[in-house]
């Protein structure tokens, strides 16, 4: 199990982001509340031009540190080059809503749902949890119908929000679709798919080990170590021109070619973002398409989504398969519904049910370790988190509080987009996972 | 009248682009034909990764020089930070098409239309002109119906293309809407709208002079002069981190604050991009909204467009009001139809007819000079080109062959997106403007 800091990911196009360091400092200073750090309250980027102290610019150590990140999570494309995940040019398929009266009633009921946060004997209401978690958007679908939808901070219904490591679950879903459809053999070694991976530690891993992050690869995120891998990775991935004299890897894929071994493939789950980028390379090589096009063709163009999504890229135009996607709240709800309904959406089958059955069944729990105590004794497979709880829930998760949470028993899909001051979900799970369970039980009992 | 090189604009976010210089060199080497330089034929950015000699990366002197620019015009966001011009989340309003049989018949007829290029006695067919002009997309609407639509090179029906200086016509249209609606007084001096313009030469110009580019401001685009203003402008506008020791203006607006005078306000039309950025600042200050939001609210959300557009930004998030927009071909056709129909589209009035009446009436022809011999004795007003021909045509125009051409007499709207090797439309007009007239006459005679 990697250390808790490995829960961090490099942002977006991989520009160096000391997320943990920056947010840790902020936390020690007692961060502003959700209400006080609302970007509209803060006045970020208001005015033409904004006052100097309200301007948010490069570098990412500025724009992606709290409280500025509460604005920036909705505006990543304004800082970084991106590729589109096109929805095509057709009409979206509207989501199903109850009557306005029923919708209002449900909101009041759900806001009043109470739960006990982890390690606490102080009950909290659902609505309180939204603020405790610096929520920017919350959508709940029950039996395919929107029963709850609220926006805060920088997000609006026609806006988009960085989904951080939920990007991995896009990459993993696309890979799993290819495996089930027989176009990707997950028993192959990486070097059999990408010969030029060379002497990289990834060479001898299987595609499945990459998908499940059980590779034995060295990738440290110790921010106090100037030689930590995170810095080299960030430098490689930055879309900005390389500094004079830079002779390191250029782009995600050159970085992956020089990864060193650490431990043995297959032994343990280690949450390391480089696996996701390795997987992105694999599925691009096999399909002949960038991950953005794959996501567009297999998902976005066929899901009736409302908005294009986008994905940050490195200096060679390679999308950040480990964390680069920005998308709309409702469209992520559609993705969750597609997962709940095992590959069907709007009456159309997009991929075999087996894809979701494999993901929701989870990975090898014995390899999960105890590094995510707030998440519990779960597993990780095909870049999705599986809770192994009595509702069979599984999730996409990203730093600062992003989640798509699918509860098959309650027939519930929940999407939260957020800008929690600290990156690690370990800080956010205690007031989130019990809340999701409580809402699921409310919906099962009342609807 | 400024020199012919002033027909150039800096690209996108203003990164230094020696468009004229680069494309001039290419031209001397006899550029590849449209067919041979098709980016699919060239193999740009194919493969995972592409071969090194097929990779297109920063800087813009590489990615925006011919023949690479034939790929890059469809992929600007992959190089630069951008802001969205949102279409909202509703359904698009489909364009009207004839039956497939009629559509095919019309295409054959239009492809066979012949015309005499300027200064030539060799007739050319319409279809030949498409290749002569390195056309990427061509759309013709007649009486509101699509009668011709073809895609080439990097563009497809669900793709987007840089529109270069046609961006100015977005900015000017938004300004004219505000003038006609009474929220912007075009007789005000710039310093009365933006006091911090300070001692800039723009301070004493009227808003109307900025709109019509009759300001007396120094802005040279002599690429062989290292002190030419274009370089300082590009350095200011670049979204990349400023080089160490850089002490020049940062962003479009700081640049505008230090512009020097040249000639007198109101004397002559000088095609200088900085006027468009000055106008963008003015309408943002007055409306309290960035030009991207203005374009979204007043145009894109209300036009039934199919795709979001986007606009490149400087390092402070200010959109490039003089050249930064990328959009879809059909959506630009919708904009042309909106202009043809004097502010009405899909049965809805978006702005007063007077807006288009003022634009199509043109500017002061006595100030136009003779710097655009291929365009003829026209005028420029509110950032639109007016031909003052017997059809009353007017146009948005951008380097490398972009145009929205509105012919009220023929009830024709024509949109061309292109990637001509050289920037200046003076090279492209001879095989374009007579072709447009010929097609207009064909449509009037036959439909």
UniProtKB/TrEMBL annotation, chains A, B:
Keyword Phosphoprotein included in the entry's annotation: no
Taken from the record, one Pfam family name reads Beta-lactamase
Q: What is this protein called?
A: Serine hydrolase
Q: Which UniProt keywords apply?
A: Hydrolase, Signal
Do you know which InterPro entries this protein is assigned to?
Beta-lactam-related, Beta-lactam/transpept-like, Diverse_Enzym_Activities
Q: Does the keyword Oxidoreductase apply?
A: no
What SUPFAM superfamilies does UniProt report for this protein, alphabetically? beta-lactamase/transpeptidase-like
- Source organism per entry reads Thetidibacter halocola
Signal peptide residue numbers = 1-27
């Amino acid at each position: 199990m990697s250390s808790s800091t490995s829960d961090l990911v490099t942002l977006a196009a991989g520009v160096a982001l000391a997320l943990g360091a920056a947010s840790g400092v902020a936390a020690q200073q007692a961060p502003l509340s959700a209400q006080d750090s609302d970007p509209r309250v803060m006045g970020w980027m208001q005015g033409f031009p904004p006052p100097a102290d309200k301007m948010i610019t490069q570098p990412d150590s500025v724009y992606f540190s709290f409280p500025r990140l509460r604005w920036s999570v909705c505006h990543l494309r304004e800082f970084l080059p991106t590729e589109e995940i096109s929805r095509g040019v057709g009409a979206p398929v509207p989501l199903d809503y109850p009557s306005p009266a029923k919708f209002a009633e449900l909101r009041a009921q759900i806001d009043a749902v109470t739960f006990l946060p982890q390690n606490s004997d102080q009950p909290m209401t659902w609505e309180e949890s939204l603020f405790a978690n610096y929520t920017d958007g919350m959508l709940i679908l029950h039996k395919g119908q929107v029963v709850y939808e609220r926006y805060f901070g920088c997000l609006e219904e026609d806006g988009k929000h960085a989904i951080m490591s939920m990007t991995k679950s896009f990459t993993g879903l696309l890979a799993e679709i290819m495996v089930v459809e027989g176009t990707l053999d997950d028993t192959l070694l990486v070097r059999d798919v990408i010969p030029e991976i060379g002497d990289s530690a990834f060479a001898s891993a299987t595609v499945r080990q990459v998908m499940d992050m059980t590779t034995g690869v060295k990738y440290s995120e110790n921010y106090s170590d100037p030689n930590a891998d995170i810095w080299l990775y960030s430098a490689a991935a930055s879309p900005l021109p390389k500094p004079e004299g830079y002779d390191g890897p250029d782009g995600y894929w050159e970085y992956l070619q020089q990864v060193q071994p650490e431990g043995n493939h297959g032994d343990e789950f280690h949450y390391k973002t480089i696996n996701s980028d390795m997987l992105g390379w694999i599925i691009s090589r096999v399909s002949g398409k960038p991950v953005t096009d794959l996501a567009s063709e297999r998902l976005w163009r066929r899901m009736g989504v409302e908005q294009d999504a986008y994905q940050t890229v490195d200096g060679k135009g390679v999308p950040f398969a480990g964390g680069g996607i920005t998308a709309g709240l409702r469209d992520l709800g559609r993705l969750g519904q597609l997962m709940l309904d095992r590959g069907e959406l709007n009456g159309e089958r997009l991929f075999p049910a087996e894809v979701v059955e494999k993901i929701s069944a989870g990975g090898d729990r014995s390899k999960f370790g105890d590094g995510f105590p707030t998440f519990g004794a779960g597993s990780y497979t095909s870049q999705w988190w599986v809770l192994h709880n009595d509702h069979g829930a599984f999730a996409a998760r990203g730093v600062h509080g992003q989640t798509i949470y699918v509860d098959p028993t309650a027939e519930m899909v929940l999407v939260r987009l957020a800008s929690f001051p600290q990156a690690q979900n370990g800080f956010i799970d205690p007031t989130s996972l019990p809340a999701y369970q409580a809402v699921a039980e409310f919906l099962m009992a009342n609807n």
